[in-house]
Amino acid sequence: MNQKNSTKRQGYVGWIEASICIGSFVHVKMFLANPRELCQMAGTAAWMVPLIGVIGAIVIFFILNHLTATFSRASLLSIAGLFWGPTIQFLLGILFSSLFILISGYELRIFAEFVLTTLLPQTPISIVVISMVVLNIYLAIGGFESLSRTIMIIAPIGLTVLTLALTFGGTMGTVYNLSPWLGYGFWDTLSAGLLYTSLYEEIILLGFIAPLFREQKDFRRSGLATLVLSAVLFVFAQVVYEMCFQIQSAQQMGFPLFQVTRLIRFETFLQRLDPMFVFVWASVSSVGLAVGLYGAALTLTQGIRATDFRPYLIPLAVLSICVSFIPPRSLDAVNTYSFIPWLLQIPFYGLPVILLLWSKLFYRPQENRP
């Protein structure tokens, strides 16, 4: 792929916009089922899991940062093509595009189920799914710069409402629900944290949009800001969720953070913040799902060395609809989605590690060869 032409088409992005945009993609899972899954894995110590997981994610990010600095902010697929040729680059492009579609498809299905449960119980699920996909195409067609500008409009409102909702929700709970503090034990908590490094696996998208940053320091700031912001929100949401529900209930709750907002009640002055939370959740998730669709189109484009990702948005969006209807029931979609991130962290984290090792052990720049 001609990176200079692609960059001119999409424009450059700032590190703040990029970090918040990718953060919206990371946090779609937080609004779906993540707090419940962490409680199932680590018990009352589930709030520690994001803290442990972010350490592994930071290590992967520094590998990404080193690679992009060494190869002038080339994308991971361009670096792979340089090492192993266009055939491997093509196959990797197909692989990562498929993985992004898999994530987006399952998140789309669970999002649609949430809308049907809370807002539109009589609406066919196909209408909700198709409407969301059309919105995703509209948001993604302008490229990453357009997505980042959209999320910058939503982010101040979204973060304010989320912070208030979680803060008020926390006042409805009790800190004693967090005990025993080590959950099922130190080693179980540590292993859960390492497994849930997958919480941050969407950070790999930075490796594909690296050519859109003007300077390496912007790339580095964006990645670190994304990870720090994500970890803070994951921990905050998890602590509040566990304070509000005893662990046995927390391990069974559907749409966990929505249930937290339904608890908020301050006598006659403030009740039922959940409609406002639904609006924020839907807005942030819409951008997050659009980022996933954009990532699928971008990686496919880089894999086949095309110059524009836009022609592939609609076909890939249709594929995401097909994936969303693979599970026959919503429960099947949730159960499958719970372990998909564990599997995806193998290629998402494995590619930059392999590229780094190859660059150190086997690659020699052309000008240094005899």
From TrEMBL:
Record carries keyword Transmembrane helix: yes
Name the record gives this protein: GerAB/ArcD/ProY family transporter
UniProt-listed InterPro entries: Spore_GerAB
Top-level taxon of origin: Bacteria
Subcellular location: Membrane
Keyword Ubl conjugation: no
Main localization category: membrane
Family recorded in the similarity comment: Belongs to the amino acid-polyamine-organocation (APC) superfamily. Spore germination protein (SGP) (TC 2.A.3.9) family.
Species of the source: Heliobacterium chlorum
Pfam families: Spore_permease
Transmembrane intervals: 12-32, 44-64, 76-103, 123-141, 153-173, 193-212, 224-241, 276-297, 309-327, 339-359
Bilayer topology: Multi-pass membrane protein
Keywords assigned: Germination, Membrane, Transmembrane, Transmembrane helix, Transport
